[in-house]
Design a protein that fits this description.
This protein is an all-alpha fold and about 160 residues long. It has 5 helices and no strands. Helix 1 packs antiparallel against helix 2, helix 2 runs antiparallel to helix 5 and helix 4 runs antiparallel to helix 5. It is elongated.
Length: about 160
């Protein structure tokens, strides 16, 4: 697990160092996350020979759903950036509603995937995968949070 965490941290920081803007960072993160993440998961998972094919089939299905949720998050961040200077009550409500929906969708996906993997492979392997996914997702969230200004952060105080 320590190697997994270290590699994940290095990947996130490498992405951040190469990115020139939020849009580029998000695109690069999606690209690297999708490509290198599979290698991280492969090294982390302890699968028996008979489980691997089924696991990777479920993993690929999971990734399609995760990427769709990630795109919703990206759209919401872009909306926030566009509305930041003139954020209204209605805008704030809409942005937060989507943010809550995105977070809920991640939780639903993790639960659905866990149940499916636990039934098909094993509860231990399913928990191992979901724990790794949660860790990576929280790393992405942390990186995004560092680059997105808080509401009112850049207001000029008199």
């Amino acid at each position: 697990m320590k190697k997994f965490i270290l590699v994940a941290i290095i990947a996130v920081f490498a992405i951040a160092a190469k990115a020139q803007s939020n849009a580029e960072e998000i695109a690069l993160m999606q690209s690297v996350y999708g490509m290198q993440k599979k290698d991280l998961i492969a090294k982390h998972m302890k699968l028996e020979a008979g489980q691997a094919d089924l696991f990777w089939q479920m993993y690929d299905e999971y990734e399609v759903a995760r990427e769709a949720i990630g795109l919703e998050r990206v759209k919401n961040i872009e909306n926030y950036a566009e509305q930041y200077d003139n954020l209204t009550e209605v805008d704030a409500d809409a942005l937060m509603k989507v943010s809550f929906e995105v977070n809920t969708e991640f939780l639903k996906l993790w639960e659905k995937t866990y149940k499916k993997m636990a039934k098909s492979i094993s509860s231990v392997n399913a928990a191992q995968f979901i724990q790794a996914e949660m860790f990576l997702e929280y790393m992405v969230r942390q990186e995004l949070s560092m680059d997105i200004p808080l509401i009112g952060e850049f207001e000029v105080k008199e």
